[in-house]
Amino acid sequence: MKKSNWKKYAVGLVSASALLLAACGGGSGTDSTSSSNKEKNSGDELHISVDTGYIKYIDEIKEAFEKEHDVKIKVTERDMFEQLEALPLDGPAGNAPDIMMSAYDRVGPLGQQGHLAEITLGNEEQYDDTDKALVTIDDKIYAEPAVIETLVLYYNKDLVDKAPETFKDLEALSKDKKYDFAGEVGKNTGFLAKWTDFYFSYGLVAGYGGYVFGDNGTDPTDIGLNNKGAVEAITYATDWFQNVWPQGMQDITSSDAFITDQFLAGKVGAFIGGPWQAAALQEAGVNYGVSTIPTLNNGEEYQAFGGGKGWVVSNYSKNKDVAQEWVDYVTNTENQNKFYDMTNEIPANQESRKYATGQDNELTTAVIDQFKEAQPMPNIPEMAEVWAGAENLMFDAASGNKTPKQSADDAAKLISESIEQKYTN
């Protein structure tokens, strides 16, 4: 899942937790709430909250589950992030759903803080190690994988004969005069990537040997964003920013729109983007193709974050056993196949990925193939400090304010100090 809402979510979660502690100060109020909660959560109803786009899917599959388990499913339409932010307060008050979806990077913090119930993977044989890592923290599983997501390469089929396979191919695009940027001599838009955004640049950093946290993303005392490989990646990106790309690519807030506008105008051969961008390109009528991200100059693959969403169970639910049955049911192969057919989102279930690949959709195939090289996004709470601390990881070097080494060292130091301040007892 894209990280754009992380900081808003983290602040909201901390505030909600503080309010919850204050609210629990009076004993009599807690007893009253618990009694009310028991009445609301009778065993014959299962409350599920999902985004608007999933309502029809749930309605399509719920009847068979209701009959088998003698339960009535109540579906609520609510934005996923709003639902997650509300859980720390709504749960104890008896107002939270039994089941909801969660971005993988929210699963760890919510699970550790006691808001999500620990579950088992009913379809465990359908998940690989990456899938399992996304929903596991402290050896406990808090979600059943549902959707996978990672970055891919888009290219203009009217301008590029075939999908670029290496970064040397991308560099060749940047030397093609037809992509020269009007108004800035010597600048070119043949290939673009939003590397001022850490979510986009991490695949480059990781491909050269950098990493967020050690021990497979679980050790926040070991930060690898300023090691030799990370500095090499930042140095390579800095050359693009300073010697190839227009000045607008350094703008952290508007570079995304700049890339899209240039691509729609036929001024870009290829760019790195997320699967969520395909709809806009299709609507604009661009003859685009999608492929995996080309191999780096060091021979390694671009190792973008692997993310997505999973089904989670509220720890405040009175129907955890039935909720467990639901998360197993909704993620089985038959229902994940139907999920893909109805939403066009890539299923986590391995058998369903094979089914989806067989539908001859370039975007689907590219995401599935790229996900094989993806790194699970760390889901420990300390990851919040990385989003904030790495905001200028590329910009400081790209703008010339610092050397790549200084930029990397300063970002790693800021992240480390923030973690020590907020998470060390």
Structural class based on helices, strands and sheet pairing: alpha/beta
Helix content: 40-55%
Tell me the count of domains: 2
Oligomeric description of these chains: single chain
CATH domain class name of the largest domain: Alpha Beta
Q: Could you tell me the mean pLDDT?
A: 90
Using the CA coordinates, give the radius of gyration. 23 Å
- Provide the low-confidence segments as ranges: 1-42
Corresponding CATH architecture of the largest domain: 3-Layer(aba) Sandwich
Q: Count helical runs.
A: 19
Q: What composes the largest sheet?
A: 6 strands, mixed
The CATH topology of the largest domain corresponds to D-Maltodextrin-Binding Protein, domain 2
From the N-terminal CA to the C-terminal CA, the straight-line distance is: 30 Å
**Proportion of β residues?**
5-15%
Count of strand segments? 14
Overview of the structural elements:
- The protein is of the alpha/beta class.
- The protein folds into two domains: 6-149 and 306-376, D-Maltodextrin-Binding Protein, domain 2, CATH 3.40.190; 152-303 and 382-423, Periplasmic binding protein-like II (D-Maltodextrin-Binding Protein, domain 2, 3-Layer(aba) Sandwich), CATH 3.40.190.
- It has 19 helices and 14 strands.
- It has helices spanning 6-23, 27-40, 55-69, 80-93, 104-112, 129-134, 167-173, 198-207, 214-217, 228-243, 255-264, 278-284, 320-330, 333-343, 350-357, 362-371, 383-389, 395-398, 404-423, and strands spanning 45-50, 72-77, 99-103, 136-137, 140-141, 144-149, 152-156, 191-192, 211-213, 219-224, 270-273, 288-291, 305-313, 375-376.
- The strands form four sheets. Strands 1, 2, 3, 6, 13 and 14 form a six-stranded mixed β-sheet that branches.
- The longest helix is centred in the C-terminal third of the chain and has 20 residues, at 404-423.
- It is globular and about 70 Å long.
